[in-house]
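Table S2 (text version). Query chain:
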Amino acid sequence: MAKLIEATIAVIGDKGFQRATVQEISGRAGLSVGVIRQFDSRPDLIVRTAEEVFSRQLAGYRILMEHIGA
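Corresponding structure-token output:
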């Protein structure tokens, strides 16, 4: 799952959302296209990836706020 999420982030960053194909994502992850079946659809993978990105951003924000004493 982690490889798939990381690959999705990378492909969207490189090619954009519209051009982020299942084949490109799975190839970047070094996995077979069939691994995408863990999700109901490509948009479900994209949503899961967006949730992960948001979670990382929130964690970074919390660390920053603790650092500056807010």
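Notes on Table S2: The CA atoms of residues 34 and 68 lie 45 Å apart. The helical segments are 2-15, 22-29, 42-68.
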